[in-house]
Inverse folding.
């Protein structure tokens, strides 16, 4: 069947958007990790370590995935990502079913899920940005929207088709992700054309865009971004500003995403609730899934709103897209204050705020990298900047696990050992108070970046 170029671009965007669902399953961790831990005998610190390895998989694979996309096109990156994600969930289901307790094996499997997400997401973002350069904020926000909504979608599917069954839920993740990939990936792969020799090396010739990128479709911006990569990237102070700010904001968001399940367990009443309510485990899991769903929807909203706001700021008001980073800068400061004191009935507010500002972070930062350093090596540059959360996220997650485990007590009930924290918010509140200082550092860094970029633009305007 013949498709016109405009129809093919539109269909590519739609399918790339749904591929975002496959990437976002890494954020489902809190909806099943407590049950996974109970089955395999893991502590909160060990679960935090597994979550961190998943984050490291997402981050460390960034430069590799970016290089693959920039030099080889989308197909190799998509196939690699899809294979890693499906294999990761198949392995986790096997481990859960066989009660094969091994933190190292769990880490390897979750690393595969994280890395697979990045390989698919890198191809998605580059494809959408190249195909729709005039509205790349909205175009890239759509797959990022589904990335953020993924946890909510799969939580809903799990509650409808496999309620309370962790084993079947992990199987559902493997099967549904494989089905989405098989349906959506081929057309995105077709955006790779026959490779052409350019500048002495093979580079993929992407989908032709001449009918789309006419002058009247391009955004009106005050200047064209220089093409910066390699050693020049590391010499640019703006790179380090972005690196530090992203590390702080993404690290704080990931700590909450991976830890909210245990916050729910603490806020429901701990040991007393577990032994006095016959359906305590089910009620706690439902509340955990509810918080994950709120996070997911808010994350989705943050990504799509930030993309639209960024395009509006640059096209309508001729301002710098980077000013939109002030939203997560302020939001993460407020979220740390709320996280320390929120009761269970209001925890959804903290989940919603964290989801929104986390969505803003992961939509605006990639586009800011493109605006600052150009599109020629965008995937590689974003992959390098995306390494930023590794150390902060490790520190935040490790500290949460250490504080929470220190407050956990073991008691025997009906011949079984029950581990629980019985002091409510005091199980973890000092984590948020300490992280507040990090949020202030990230906010200061964003303010400096906005000032620095504005100054550079003013100097450029004077010279012109």
């Amino acid at each position: 069947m013949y498709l016109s170029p405009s129809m093919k671009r539109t269909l590519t965007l739609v399918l790339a958007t749904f591929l975002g669902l496959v990437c976002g399953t890494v954020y489902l961790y809190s909806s099943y990790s407590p049950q996974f831990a109970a089955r395999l005998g893991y502590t909160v610190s060990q679960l935090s370590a597994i979550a961190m390895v998943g984050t490291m998989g997402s981050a460390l694979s960034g430069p590799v995935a970016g290089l693959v996309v920039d030099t080889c096109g989308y197909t190799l990156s998509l196939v690699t990502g899809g294979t890693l994600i499906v294999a990761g969930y198949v392995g986790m289901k096997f481990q859960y079913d066989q009660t094969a307790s091994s933190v190292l094996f769990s880490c390897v499997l979750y690393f595969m899920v994280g890395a697979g997400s990045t390989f698919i997401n890198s191809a998605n973002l580059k494809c959408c940005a190249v195909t729709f350069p005039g509205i790349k904020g909205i175009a890239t926000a759509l797959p990022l929207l589904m990335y953020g909504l993924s946890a909510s979608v799969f939580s809903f599917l799990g509650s409808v088709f496999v309620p309370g069954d962790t084993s079947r839920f992990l199987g559902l993740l493997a099967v549904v992700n494989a089905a989405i990939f098989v349906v959506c990936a081929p057309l995105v792969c077709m955006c790779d054309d026959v490779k052409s020799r350019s500048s002495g090396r093979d580079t993929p010739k992407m989908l032709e865009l001449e009918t789309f990128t006419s002058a009247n479709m391009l955004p009106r911006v005050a200047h064209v971004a220089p093409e910066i990569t390699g050693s020049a990237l590391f010499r640019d102070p703006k790179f380090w500003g972005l690196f530090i700010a992203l590390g702080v904001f993404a690290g704080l968001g990931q700590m909450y995403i991976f830890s909210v399940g245990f916050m729910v367990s603490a806020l429901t009443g701990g040991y007393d609730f577990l032994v006095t309510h016959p359906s305590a485990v089910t009620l706690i899991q439902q509340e955990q899934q509810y918080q994950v769903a709120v996070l997911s929807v808010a994350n989705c909203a943050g990504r799509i709103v930030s993309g639209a706001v960024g395009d509006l700021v640059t096209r309508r008001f001729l301002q710098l897209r980077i000013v939109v980073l002030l939203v997560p800068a302020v939001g993460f400061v407020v979220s740390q204050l709320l996280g320390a004191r929120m009761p269970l009935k209001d925890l959804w507010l903290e989940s919603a705020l964290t989801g929104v500002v986390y969505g803003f972070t992961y939509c605006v930062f990639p586009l800011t990298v493109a605006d600052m350093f150009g599109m020629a090596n965008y995937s590689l540059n974003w992959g390098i900047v995306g390494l930023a959360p590794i150390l902060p996220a490790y520190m935040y997650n490790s500290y949460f696990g250490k504080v929470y485990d220190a407050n956990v007590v073991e008691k025997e009930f009906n011949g079984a050992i029950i581990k629980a924290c019985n002091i409510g918010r005091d199980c973890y509140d000092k984590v948020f108070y300490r992280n507040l200082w990090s949020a202030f550092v990230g906010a200061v860094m964003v303010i400096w970046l906005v000032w620095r970029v504005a100054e550079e633009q003013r100097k450029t305007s004077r010279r012109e």
